[in-house]
Amino acid sequence: MSLDTMEEACNKTSDLCSSNLCLQNATCLSSAGNLNFTCKCPAGYNGTTCETAISTCDTNPCKHGGTCLDGLAGPSCLCRSGFTGTHCEMDVDECISEPCHNGAVCRDGIDEYYCYCVPGYQGKHCDLEVNECVSDPCLNGATCLNLIGKYYCICPPGYTGANCELDVDECQSWPCQNGATCHDAPAAFSCSCTPGFHGALCQIDVDEYTCNCTGTGFMGLHCETLVPPCWSQPCYNNATCEDSADGYTCHCWP
Question: Per the record, what is one GO cellular component (predicted)?
């Protein structure tokens, strides 16, 4: 080999890319004179020889505690219960399914909901009717009628009020007449009559009636006097009649 040929061979360097220095099937690019090389890495890798996998979750794109999953196409988020969306950015509205009943208002929460019941209902979904009569609000033997959101007391005679707690004053209507005094009592009243009147309401004037004593053996305004045996003049021929305890005696003329 001539001197010139040997010098030409020494000036030639081998191609570094021929050694497959780039990883992950990256493309190797040699520099001028084959003194250096560059690896053109595929998506998801970097480094001199594409030896480092790029984490797509480094920027933590998932919201509300979602879990980030690496992928060649980019990150994906595994959302916590109650959230949805590409980055778990949206709260799931649990009220969309209308879980609350009987006119209740639904308020959405994080992975839950709250039902605000209208009066008369209770329970998580406001589906249970409240029995307002359980507390026995009606007094004095009244009957409690359970209604939606309220109750009604059916009072016995002589009582009134929302809970039948008030005694009705039967004397307020002034039932006693002719100056009589009224005495109130539970579900009743009585009248104390002034002299000359009688009756339940003192409505009867004593002078407005007469007593028929015929056949009773008594006489007087009120048939209060026993009739004497001689009253009927039982003796004949002008004889004198004398009353006695067991009847009468006729004293005849001679």
Answer: receptor complex
Residue type at position 93: D
Q: Answer for the pair 154, 146: CB distance below 8 angstroms, yes or no.
A: no
- Which residues does residue 145 pair with via DSSP β-bridges, in sequence order? 152
CA distance linking residue 133 with residue 151, whole number of Å? 7
This prediction has a pTM of: 0.43
Q: Residues 71-89: pLDDT tens digits?
A: 767 788 999 999 999 999 9
> CB atoms < 10 A from the CB of 137, how many?
15
Nearest to 142 by CA among 128, 124, 127, 161: 161
- The domains located in the chain, with CATH, are 16-54 (2.10.25.10), 132-168 (2.10.25.10), 169-208 (2.10.25.10)
Mean pLDDT of the chain: 86
- What is the maximum span of the chain, computed from C-alpha positions, in angstroms? 219
Tell me how far apart the alpha carbons of residues 214 and 221 are, in angstroms, rounded to a whole number: 12
